[in-house]
Specification:
Largest sheet: 7 strands, parallel
Structural class: alpha/beta
Number of helices: 8
Order of helices and strands: EHEHEHEHEHEHHHE
Oligomer: single chain
Helix content: 40-55%
Strand order of the largest sheet: 3-2-1-4-5-6-7
Shape: globular
Length: about 250
């Protein structure tokens, strides 16, 4: 195991999060795969270990802020100090803006913004106390720079997470903590594959410059790059990886 390469990935039970775990483990990171579905996490961790990597499952609900301290304590017991956090967990509710309820709004914001905020500060507090040069990667979206009808709150939350990366980066710049955003374009996962196979999904794909959507492995090199302990000159930035979908 490489020193200073233990990473906690939220939303790790499927989609981008699961692929982030695979890519980081392949690069030598010890992975803490965190999500609510522990059975899915165990399967992913077994897959990683079978390939020669190191991974541990961690039950975590990123909307349960009061559980963060105990969850990070558990992660440290399993794998030692955490050096990088990937705030990947997120979701959306597809509704017109005028149809969103306060409960809908809170659901999206709690998951996409509030949870990452407080999980980041939980780890940053520990890093400052131990002198650890931590890394945080907040997963944004093409919707932080492209208005998508029916996803007003989601787009707002992703714009906010990119700004949060800048705020954290500036506040912690002299603490050795680097914070950046990875903002993917449209990526086909098991969660949205059915949509991209429908006529509306195919019509959306046809509007893209290369008439295609990405796959999770298209982000492998980017997530590994942003998590590297030696990347201390890169902070407060958004890496847009969207295959030119916003051009």
């Amino acid at each position: 195991m490489s020193d200073n390469k233990t990473v906690l990935v939220t939303g790790a039970s499927s989609g981008l999060g699961a692929q982030f775990c695979r890519a980081l483990a392949a690069d030598g990171f010890t992975v803490i795969a965190a999500a609510r579905r522990i059975d899915k996490l165990q399967s992913i961790c077994e897959e990683i270990r079978s390939a020669g990597g190191q991974a541990h499952p961690l039950a975590l609900d990123v909307t349960d802020i009061d559980s963060f301290k105990a969850a990070v304590d558990q992660a440290e017991t399993m794998a030692g100090d955490i050096h990088c956090l990937v705030n990947n967990a997120g979701s959306s509710i597809s509704k017109k803006a005028i149809d969103m309820t306060p409960q809908d709004f809170d659901f999206v914001m709690d998951l996409n913004l509030k949870g990452p905020y407080f999980l980041s500060t939980e780890l940053a507090r520990r890093w400052m106390g131990k002198g650890i040069a931590g890394r945080i990667v907040n997963v944004g979206s093409v919707s932080d720079r492209k208005a998508i009808p029916g996803h007003t709150v989601y787009g707002t939350s992703k714009s906010a997470i990119a700004r949060l990366s800048q705020q954290f980066a500036r506040e912690w710049i002299n603490k050795g903590i680097c914070v950046n955003t990875l903002a993917p374009g449209y990526i086909k996962t098991e969660l949205n594959a059915e949509f991209f196979d429908t006529p509306p999904g195919q019509a959306l794909t046809a509007t893209m410059p290369r008439k295609r959507v990405g796959v999770p492995s298209d982000l492998d090199k980017a997530i590994v790059y942003l998590c590297q302990p030696g990347q201390d000159f890169l902070t407060g930035q958004t890496l847009a990886l969207d295959d030119g979908q916003c051009l």
